Amino acid sequence: MAETASTYRPRDGRAWLWAIPPQHYPAFLQTKTFAVHRVGRTALQRLRPGDRIFAYLSGSKVLVGLFEVTGEPFEDHTPLVPGVAYPHRVRVRPLVVLPEEAWVPFEAFADKLEVVHHYPDFRSVVQQVLHPLPRVDEKVLEFLIRARAADLEQAMSALEELRRLRAERPKPVVRERRVRYRAEGFDRATALEALLSYLEGRGFVYAPWIVAAYVTALRTKPLVILAGPTGTGKSKLPLLVAEATGGEARLLPVRPDWADSAELLGYVDLQGRFRPGMLLRLMREAQQQPERFFVGVLDEMNLARPEQYLAEALSRIEDRRPLPEGGWTTEPLLQLSLAPADQGWARVAWTANFALVGTVNVDETTHGFSRKVLDRAFTLELTEIDLAATPTSTTPPEPDRWPVAAWLPRALRLAELPTRSDAEQKQLDRVLETLQTLNRWLLPAGFPVAYRTRDEVALFVLHAAETPEAFRTRTGEPVDPLDLALWMKVLPRLQGSSPTLRRALRALLGCAVTGAPAERDDELRALLDTWTTAGYPNRWPEAAFPMTAARLAHMWLRLESEGFASFWE
């Protein structure tokens, strides 16, 4: 049971949110003393008896109790927590102390607080350790805490007070909000160039084609895998793009012990209560805020097996169906029988304003990807590393909100594509001719391009054609979107050591370089000698498909030296 105060009284003091390291909370609770080292001491001096403190465990991201200040702030160097100095202190008395199973996750309240609207994200508030709260926020948090503690009478009192405060609050003056792009007149090319400038101004160096490919892939298919060496900005890219476009991206760290979807989607505990997972909570936020684009970032997604912990989500990707009003949706993700009180979670679906991005470090400690995962994703490797490159600006331009419609694909499948222009049909003919040629050798090797891959490559190329100038290197050389699409959708699936795969790699490499398949190993060796002598590790400039050719060359050399070919290095 939660520990609660026996009386409720109106108050004139202020309310505060106090971020506490989880490991130190038991000592604070036992001694009825809250303390800070340095950060927060200025705010601490403003506390007065009668003020209320909402205790938030910063590392666990949960709200755990409500406390009242009982004395003036003071300084005391007597150890409060072993090994940590907490000299600036204040005495408190607990009003509500929640048991661990009733702790309130920050997703339940962060988007409901007025104070958060003044900051880029919730972390900006809690990093200040001690932050004052408006009276409306105080009532929101008090209601949540008392409801969790089953202190229903006082929770309803807090709710009535919250309603009164909101009713009495003067209506805000409506000002014209600066939104450069709207769905009906969104200038995609200009928006993408503004995004590149924003990233540069924030101090991050990405080749323009990487950002363009990421945005285009995310629009084409809501599952993107970002691979590459540590430190290339894989995890940061989705966060920065969301920051620059008015969306929301949130890290979802993957753990090695995930063997099913319980941590991501949720489970029913021994008491029969449903515990929603972090992915399901984020998807519900997206469903409740259709005007914003959400991205869940599965950090180091191959620490566990994605086909196990993402099974339901992977299936839902292929269940997407278009909506009459635009966009698309799926069937609900959960396949559990839930109590009536939890039925809201049973209706959460994958909506068009949500996407998943996985980051990958491939080494001997991680799991490989199954065909089921790779066939449903775009795999983008951040391979272009220029240590001499530095940002040209330290002041990023003001971000511009992208409408959700800017992230919607033109169609889910090639057959659903509306009328095509002559130029678009010419692009599609090139895509289909190239894939048919490659399939002559992919099919005998057991890696054929099927209809799903065909549609996604074609749609990626059509989407990329809307921003052709963004597909360039940092030095201005153009990057062919079809080359990128082959690199992202066809090559990651190739692996093995069979004779048929060897013949396929040899033929594909010849096609990627000269446009015609290489018939013999010595013919291919002559091409490879030219490439290795020139020293082009990630691009073969004179090739028909420079990036595809370079990666196939790496795979061929690995097959010769180690007896096994793989996209992943």
Describe this structure in words.
The protein is of the alpha/beta class and 569 residues long. Helix content is 37%, strand content 15%. The chain is built from 20 helices and 20 strands. Strands 1, 2, 3, 4, 5, 6, 7, 8 and 9 form a nine-stranded mixed sheet that branches. A hairpin with a 5-residue loop joins strand 12 (266-268) and strand 13 (274-276). Helix 7 (208-220) crosses helix 16 (451-464), helix 16 (451-464) runs antiparallel to helix 17 and helix 17 (481-489) packs parallel to helix 20. The chain is elongated. Mean pLDDT is 85; it is low at 4-11, 118-126 and 171-183.
**Per the principal axes of the C-alpha atoms, what is the gross shape?**
elongated
- What's the helical proportion of residues? 25-40%
The main β sheet shows up as: 9 strands, mixed
Tell me the distance between the termini: 53 Å
The tally of strands reads: 20
Average pLDDT level: 85
Give the percentage of residues in beta strands.
15-25%
Helical segment count: 20
Flag low-confidence runs: 4-11, 118-126, 171-183
Derived structural class: alpha/beta
Rg over alpha carbons: 28 Å
